[in-house]
Amino acid sequence: MELLAPAGNLDKLKTAVLYGANAVYLAGQKFSLRGASDNFSETELLEGVLFARKNNCKTYVTLNAFLHDQELKQLPQYVKFLEKCGVDAVIVSDLGVMTVVQQNSELAVHLSTQASCLNVHSAKLWKSLGAKRLVLGREVSLEEAGKIRKEAEIEVELFIHGAMCMAFSGNCTISNYTAGRDSNRGGCAQSCRFSYSAIPDSAESADVSPEYLPSSLMSSKDLRGMDLLPEFLKTGVDSIKVEGRMKSSLYAATTTSAYSRALKWCNSTSQQEWPEKLKELSAMLEKIPHRGYTKGSLINPAEAESVYQGERNSRNSSYEIAGTVMEVDEGKTFTLLTQNAFEHGRTLEVLSFEGKVIEVSTNEMQDISRLPVLKAKPNRLLRFPYPPLVSSSQEVSTNFGIEPMNVVRLQYVSAAQ
After folding, report:
1. In this structure, is the dihedral angle defined by the CA atoms of residues 8, 12, 14 and 17, taken in order, positive or negative?
2. With 0-12 CB in 10 A as exposed, 13-18 as middle and 19+ as buried, what is 250?
């Protein structure tokens, strides 16, 4: 089963690939539903595809916006460019876009979740039109996904983790109304996540205290299907998808590593061992910022428990990204490009590609001129010594698993601490 990870920009693509993704999905500067993401220039896209291919990873490009005729005129040239780059497939929602892709290339077409494919008859129709894979709507259960795959005889892809839209298959126009930005053409402002006050029709006579009303009336908790992975495997889902092109490199590294390791465990150990290991890997996902977790509609239709009520994972148990390892002088030092500020005396954690966590002290951090640094600021290059051996019995080695593109995290510290 393929693990498909988000790639919001070139750095995140490399992060996802190195942490175990089998495929990544990304977007160019046009025709995508994530207009606010960094996305890829043509030069970056070519570099990303080559990097992914070198590491045995596929690339899928989203062309999932709903386009008007004047925009479709620009699409043929771009489609030909994608094919020349070696992209493995494009993800589309619009029949017009699908037709243009087929007329101008041999690229495989994956149907976007935005197209709301939820049943066997719809699946057979899209297959007859040339779709090679269906990214099923998040309203579909695992059982229904298995039925669609079997009866329509087509690949199916299903979301397993990440933020979810409360609207049907993401077909939402709230941003159009509140911000003048078209959600279905790359302009979603995530208006559903704003805080709203619920005012009863008879506000003067209603005995309802505002503090008891949820503030995020239209927002869902995040999806987490880690403990359902055995059911994904049993159902025969071809690809499990992690949402999050606009999330940080820490998010990309953590989610990709967790699900990649979970798949390896399920493929190499007995089923009796799965629950304990999946529980351990699921705990990793508590350490990244999230909005509470739900199983969505994977087993039963999502109900009130899936609505976000303002709960967040405890800041004391979660992490933010400290930076990314840029260069390693093996056994001596490594250079970190910082993304957040942190103080001298804190402990950083390097996430190795193998899933190990390597603690690094900031007591001896230096700038590039090897001068001591007491407070790290964002977008700075800092040097750190390799960590010492954690025990005398540990095998002596100059390689502690720290490599370029390793993500480094920092635990939140509350004001009380």
Report:
1. negative
2. buried
In the beta sheet, which residues pair with residue 361?
Answer: 347
Distance CA 80, CA 104 (A): 6
Percent of the chain with pLDDT over 70: 87
Pairing mode, strands 319-329 and 407-411: antiparallel
User: Structural domains in the chain?
Assistant: 2-206+215-306 (3.20.20.70), 315-411 (2.40.30.10)
| Distance from chain centroid for Cα 145 | 21
Torsion of the alpha carbons at 45, 50, 64 and 130, rounded to the nearest 10: 140
**Lookup result for tokens 């709230």:** 174
Average pLDDT over residues 22-49: 85
- Judge residue 36's burial from the number of C-beta atoms within 10 Å of its C-beta, 0-12 exposed, 13-18 middle, 19 or more buried: middle
Of the CA atoms within 13 Å of residue 325, those in its CB half-sphere come to 29
Which amino acid makes up residue 388?
A: P
Q: Which two tokens stand for residue 173?
A: 């126009």
Q: Report the candidate in 175, 157, 323, 163 with the shortest Cα–Cα distance to residue 244.
A: 163
pLDDT in tens, 163-196: 887 776 667 777 777 777 776 666 677 777 777 7
